[in-house]
Design a protein that fits this description.
Number of strands: 0
Shape: rod-shaped
Radius of gyration: 27 Å
Structural class: mainly alpha
Length: 178
C-alpha cells in the first residue's frame, strides 16, 4: 500500500517547503551549538575562579607551615588573609554555579575551609597562652584539614576541565553529524 499526501504541492511549493525544513534544522543545530559554546564559556570562567581558589588555599597552607615552624604573627595574619580570600571567593561564586555538577565540591570546600579557619584560630590561641587543655593533636588535625582542602580544590578544577572537554567533544560530534 502506498501512502500519499492528501495535499498536492507544485514544484515551487515543494522547493520552499524543503528549504524551510533545512533552515529549521540548521537553526536548531546552530542553537544547540551556541548553547554548548555558552556553557563552555561559563565553565571556563568557573575554572579560572576555581584556580584562584586553589591558589589561595595553597598560599594559606604555605603560611600555615611557616607559622608552625617559626611562630610568626605575620605568617598567621597572612594565613588568615588567604583563608578569608578563599571564603569570599566561595561565597561569590556559589550562587552562580548552583546548577553545575561541581556544586557539591564547593559545599565541601566551604565546610572544610571554615573548619580549617577554626582550627587555625584555636592553634593561634594555644601559641599565645601556652598549651591549652584538649588541644592535643591540633596541629595534626590542621594538617589533615589543609591537605583535604588542597585535594578537593584540585579535584574541583580537574572535574570542571574534564566537563569542558566532554562538552567540546559532544559539540564536535554534533557538528560532524550535521
Amino acid at each position: 500500500m502506498k501512502w500519499k499526501l492528501p495535499v498536492y504541492l507544485n514544484i515551487r511549493q515543494k522547493v520552499v517547503l524543503g528549504l524551510s525544513l533545512c533552515m529549521v534544522v540548521f537553526m536548531a543545530i546552530g542553537g544547540m551549538s551556541f548553547r554548548y559554546l555558552r556553557e563552555v564559556e561559563l565553565k571556563q570562567h568557573f575554572v579560572e575562579v576555581a584556580d584562584d581558589l586553589n591558589n589561595a588555599i595553597l598560599e594559606a597552607r604555605r603560611y600555615e607551615k611557616n607559622y608552625l615552624l617559626y611562630g610568626s604573627a605575620q605568617d598567621l595574619q597572612e594565613n588568615r588573609k588567604y583563608v578569608q580570600q578563599g571564603l569570599e571567593t566561595l561565597n561569590r561564586i556559589s550562587p552562580q554555579v548552583h546548577e553545575f555538577k561541581a556544586a557539591p565540591f564547593l559545599d565541601r570546600l566551604g565546610r572544610d575551609l571554615s573548619d580549617y579557619s577554626s582550627l587555625m584560630q584555636r592553634l593561634s590561641f594555644r601559641g599565645h597562652s601556652g598549651p591549652l587543655p584538649g588541644l592535643d593533636g591540633l596541629e595534626e588535625q590542621l594538617r589533615e584539614r589543609g591537605k583535604s582542602l588542597v585535594d578537593v580544590s584540585q579535584e574541583l578544577v580537574a572535574f570542571e576541565r574534564r566537563r569542558i572537554l566532554t562538552i567540546v567533544t559532544t559539540l564536535k560530534a554534533q557538528l560532524l553529524a550535521s
